[in-house]
Amino acid sequence: TVARAGDVRFAGLSAAEHPLLTASVPLADDDGVLLTGRLSVQSHPWLADHNVKGTVLLPGTGLLELALRAGDEVGCDVVEELTLAAPLVLPAEGGVQVQVKVGAPDGAGHRNVGVFGRLDDAADEVWVRHAGGVLSTRAEGTAPAQWSDWSVWPPEGVEPVSIEGAYDTFAEAGFGYGPVFQGLRAMWRRGQGEELFAEVVLPEQAHDDAARFGLHPALLDASLHAGLVEGADDDTVVPFAWNQVSLHAAGATAVRVRLTRVGAEGLSLTMADMTGRPVLSVGSMLSRPVSAEQLESGVRTAERPYAIEWATLPHAANPDV
After folding, report:
1. Alpha carbon of 21 to those of 60, 98, 250: distances in Å?
2. Do 187 and 249 share a domain, yes or no?
3. Is there a single domain that holds both residue 226 and residue 277?
4. Which of 45, 19, 290, 289 is nearest to 178 (CA)?
5. What is the DSSP letter of 57?
6. What pLDDT does residue 311 have?
7. What are φ and ψ of residue 274, in 5° steps?
8. What is the CATH number of the domain that holds 46?
């Protein structure tokens, strides 16, 4: 068999068949797995539609999608937890190499997962850990979540919430969402806002990609925008920690969403497609404000304006010291 350019099998790898990941390989010294890929605004132009305080970065939903895909690779259908460690900033030119490392299972079947990145030309630099967490397997026969009766839509006892001008308001708060991320189409609240409901749709240009994702990161990100509409303050907040996440159906392009407040900073989420079939459940998602300084740190890493140079020091007065 003649090796073909771009065929990862001839590098001893398997094709990951995912828009953000190219290859996977089982690790030789344990029961772990490594998945690899490369991200850039040139190869993934829709990522440029996620701009926070003037900085393009992979959304937290993208980091979650990487963990879900890694779990699928090893037979784990639950992301028990995933915590953001550092923003993954995308440079204007060039790309970021990505590794998703899954560890061997412990006695209870849990596996550690980590998402790492470094610039294309940064072979002399350490990998940055962008997220870390734990994967697991849902007990056989366990119900995925307590689903609402999606056959009645909008749900009974809700009042509509205007989303007119919402994306202009988001921009004022630091979120520069482009067309692929502007998916919020309708919204309702129940009670004093403890429960929120929304319809979210991916634009047609993202449908081909959606068929290859577990859940397109832009669709999940836009599902959280209802929480921004009803946000309590003007901070620029981003997903910080995910808990008890299960994907129940892949490839959705339009969804119905139910958000429930969890404490002051968290949301639980259930999602179904437009026929009422379960798509995703999230036990809780915690958000945190992101500062310009944190993003600037990521930009410095992405643009690498600093380099190490050797300088010749003057001779010491006493050469024997």
Report:
1. 16, 8, 16
2. yes
3. yes
4. 45
5. B
6. 40
7. -75, -5
8. 3.10.129.110
Per-residue model confidence (pLDDT) at position 125: 80
Is residue 212 domain-resident? yes
C-alpha neighbours within 13 Å on the C-beta side of residue 8: 13
CA neighbours closer than 13 Å in the CB half-sphere of residue 306: 7
Point out the residues of the chain with pLDDT beneath 50.
Answer: 1-3, 5, 10, 232, 299-300, 302-321
Which two structure tokens, joined as six digits, stand for 38? Answer: 């490369």
Q: Measuring CA to CA, which residue among 81, 94, 149, 150 is closest to residue 120?
A: 94
Q: Which residue has the tokens 């030309």?
A: 121
194 domain-assigned: yes
103 in the same domain as 27: yes
CA distance 258 to 270: 5
From the CB of residue 227, how many other CB atoms can be counted at a distance below 10 Å? 21
Whole-number Å distance between alpha carbons of 40 and 51: 14
What pLDDT does 192 receive? 82
Q: State residue 292's pLDDT score.
A: 64
Nearest to 203 by CA among 271, 275, 253, 255: 253
Residue 25 to residue 282: CA distance in whole angstroms: 29
Domain residues for the domain of 249 are 159-289
pLDDT tens digit sequence for 77-95: 999 999 999 999 999 999 9
